[in-house]
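Minutes, project check-in
Item: structure for the 203-residue chain
Input as provided by the requester:
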Amino acid sequence: ALILLMYIGKNHSKETSTDRANQRQPKWQLNTSNKGKLKEFQKLFTKHNLDLLSTQIDLDEIDADPISVVAHKASQLEESVLIEDTSLEIEDASVGINVRWLLEHLNELTGRKAVWTVLLAYRQGDEVLIFKGEVKGTIVPARGDQGFGFDPVFLPENSSQTLAEGKPDEVNARALAVEALVKGDLFKKVKAIHTWGGPWQLN
């Protein structure tokens, strides 16, 4: 009887630990209306055994640096709702978060060095926590039919494929940002921006 009691107690302890671990897992949501982006992020979260839900709250974007953009967006949402922002810095060109401009001026930019940066941010109280993924590469003529956005024209360093031809995690700024988030590798912590008196991006 004593052995049976110890055995049951051990099993009960395991179940309780598992239940508590499951309760501690964060329930992440990503605010985006981009189905391609959401699908990619869900795959990345699954690799870390995490579920990712989505919200689709339309937010206007301020015309500012990427840190301020994600801080402002995250500040308009509930706590722990993720905001993602992509920027592409191209040698001798002002692109930043205006990826649409890049695609319209591609012929002028082919061959230039570029840095793809992805920021993931969420609000916690009156602060915004920001995590970063970054990949260096070159702008090339479009190749490949996978992905979205500038994937066909971005060739990562030391890679023979554009992002639209293949996107392994080591050259995927989104994957690197998710990894930083899961590991708690914080890039910046800034004050929430609840109001904005500066310029706004034009739609």
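Outcome recorded: Confidence is low (pLDDT under 50) at residues 1-24.
No further action items on this chain.
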